[in-house]
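Researcher: Please predict.
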Amino acid sequence: MHLNQIPWAVVSAAVSLSAGHVILENPKPFRFVAYGPSNPIESTGSDFPCKMPAGAKLEPDGVPTSMAIGEEQTVSFLGKAVHGGGSCQFSLSGPVEDGLWANYPLKDAEWKVIHSIEGGCPARNQRGNLDGPNQDKYSFKIPEGIKPGHYIFSWTWLARIGGQPEFYQNCAPITVTLGVTKRMNVSDRRALLTKRVDFPELFMANMGEVSGGCTTGEALREQVAIAFPNPGPSVEHPEGTGNLFKQPCDGNPRANKSQDQGEDSACDSSASTSSQAVPVPSADYDKPTTSTQSIAPVISASSAVPSSSAGPASTQTSDAATASAPSTGTCVEGHLTCLDDGTHFATCTGGRLTAPQPIAPGFKCRVGSGIGLDISPA
């Protein structure tokens, strides 16, 4: 078939997939049924979880990926619009009886986090977006305490740079098997299974009432990847721990409230106004970072946070309304555009620029568009 005989919708979808936002490559995700598989979850959370609208059913796209307990597994991604990286979580829901995916009560599912990546995900050390294929891969293990069976694997992502706070999620069918290198008796195996209750709940934000009003808006304004309120025991820091935003709220209604976090601030986005981007000590985590090198984001945490209290932040918010409206013409998907005033930027999403987003106080950007912003002191 000649190219001019292929329906334009098919060509457009293929181009969008290769140049647009990021999707899960391995493990192979379920068939996408919603428009724009690489788009984030709706801001209302209507297609959470797994980007599945109400009434849609999970359908594997081939044989589920097999993963043995305790053995190294690999996650990879497709797409260039990595938005300067960010923070990701891998979690599981299940087991799914007899692999009857379509019958699984998805909207009521609980998600247990088995691995968190704080900074540098889904791409490491990026100022903006990629100009080629994503070569980065991430390793993790199915932990002891997960019993063999069919599960829904979830990848979630909170981007470091963007026009507005968003929540990305893809899901994939997997089959968890016993590791071949370790044999246990029944009592030992039963003891390990009880550890499942220690896995934290999935971090949720940026989905309106579904995530309790919790947002990552302040971290996005500072262009710093978040440190999860409860990342769990398996944590990776591809870019070190020097530039992470200590996220104050968790919008998952099942998430346990921490000892030092009040009930009101746990799921209230307004509670984040007094927080700031601070280094997170590596001693807080059970695993060492994967790299000792800390790559500063476009605006480093130490320089982006004003020394005074909430005054500059409120001025920054009001100034956003005075920024010139971005052009609605065609733009390069995933590229960032510094607007004419040099203090606001927008992101190309779906062929259009998003609403203006302020640059951190004390800094300016060079007017123009590209895979990243050219930031300098004002």
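Model: Confidence is low (pLDDT under 50) at residues 1-19, 258-322.
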